[in-house]
């Protein structure tokens, strides 16, 4: 598919014959390549695309966006060329908040998702007074090390760190200052995935996602911390495959 959205959307393993599409939203400081293994595993059964935020990798010279709402506003038009088949969203950490906001905007335009996977993130209505984005560089690095989601080789390379820390700080600012509007809810099922030892989301905070959809909410708990999905990838992929197959079949009737 030739589109004008190449800057924003990465499609590593095109699956033109797939009946559904999975749109993946990276975590704070993350990039689209985080979902390359997901794309490889699910293609050609599901057409997988990942959103590439400004300020990282080949977009590193572009201005950063430090607001979930602003990012959602920018992403919605970039997804328009990809609405030719039913969509499921998958967002991890900040990406879950962003996926939710994009889903609300798409629904306002008449597109309803098959479902939304909210991974490693408390419900939008559950706020914590977190200020990691106000930390110095060493404070940011301490946060990244504690979550075990960043390649140790990257954390030990000063030149690479200099390049990625501005994006990390911007994303943390977006995630920590996010305050959703009260009232709107998505009209699709929400599947909530969390690690049992995730310091960023409690079970109670996760279960509040049920307040943000008019459809069913399903909860899945995995062994691990904030980046449980790295060690639990086969189980997470199984959840995605099963959900998409069931909801896709229902939508096709």
Automatic annotation (TrEMBL):
SMART domains reported in the protein's UniProt record: PKS_TE
A GO MF term: hydrolase activity
Domain Thioesterase TesA-like: 23-244
Name of the protein in its database record: Thioesterase
Coiled-coil region list: none
Keywords on record: Hydrolase
GO biological process: lipid biosynthetic process
Gene source species: Streptomyces liliifuscus
InterPro entries membership: AB_hydrolase_fold, TEII, TesA-like, Thioesterase
Top-level taxon of the source organism: Bacteria
Family per record: Belongs to the thioesterase family.
């Amino acid at each position: 598919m030739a589109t004008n959205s190449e800057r924003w959307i990465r499609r590593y393993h095109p699956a033109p014959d797939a009946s559904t599409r999975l749109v993946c939203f990276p975590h704070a400081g993350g990039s689209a390549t985080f979902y390359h293994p997901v794309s490889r595993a699910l293609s050609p059964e599901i057409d997988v695309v990942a959103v590439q935020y400004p300020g990282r990798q080949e977009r590193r010279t572009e201005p950063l966006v430090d607001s979930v709402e602003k990012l959602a506003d920018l992403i919605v038009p970039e997804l328009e060329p990809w609405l030719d088949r039913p969509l499921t969203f998958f967002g991890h950490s900040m990406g879950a908040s962003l996926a939710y906001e994009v889903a609300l905007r798409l629904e306002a335009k008449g597109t309803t998702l098959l479902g939304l996977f909210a991974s490693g993130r408390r419900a939008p209505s559950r706020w914590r007074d977190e200020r990691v984005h106000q930390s110095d560089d060493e404070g940011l690095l301490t946060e990244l090390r504690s979550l075990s989601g960043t390649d140790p080789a990257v954390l030990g390379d000063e030149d690479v760190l200099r390049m990625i820390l501005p994006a990390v700080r911007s994303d943390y600012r977006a995630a920590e200052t996010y305050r959703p509007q009260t009232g709107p809810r998505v009209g699709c099922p929400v599947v909530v995935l969390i690690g049992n030892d995730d310091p960023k989301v409690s079970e109670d905070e996760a279960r509040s996602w049920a307040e943000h959809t008019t459809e069913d909410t399903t909860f899945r708990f995995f062994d691990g911390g904030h980046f449980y999905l790295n060690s639990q990838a086969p189980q997470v992929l199984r959840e995605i495959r099963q959900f998409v197959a069931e909801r896709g079949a229902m939508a096709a009737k």
